[in-house]
Design brief:
107 residues; mainly alpha; 3 helices
Length: 107
């Protein structure tokens, strides 16, 4: 008798399962409200922090990479690496200052 069944659920949706899923969803919603849990969203501060971090890393890596490639090409190791690393840092700080300074409102 057990060999005749395939072990799969029937194709139609059982109304008991749908009812159970609805009750679970309602209970989860009530629990979230009871605990005061809210969805965590990124605010302006975290976005700005991520942007500043990306500018710092991009300036350092970009300057170092360009300097390293030019050092290999012109055989001037490590001078161009140091020059372009400094330029990358300067560009990163300039971009960070531009990001964080606010313009006064126009009247």
């Amino acid at each position: 008798m057990a060999a005749d069944t395939s072990g799969q659920d029937p194709a139609g949706e059982d109304s008991r399962i749908a009812s159970l899923e609805e009750r679970i969803a309602k209970a989860e919603q009530v629990e979230k409200v009871r605990q005061g849990a809210t969805e965590q969203v990124a605010d302006d501060g975290s976005r700005l922090g991520n942007r500043v971090l990306a500018e710092l890393i991009g300036g350092l890596v970009g300057g170092a990479l360009i300097g390293w490639v030019l050092d290999r090409f012109f055989n001037t190791s490590p001078w161009l690496l140091l020059v372009f690393l400094g330029l990358g840092i300067a560009a990163a700080f300039r971009n960070i200052i531009r990001l964080t300074t606010t313009k006064p409102p126009e009247r």
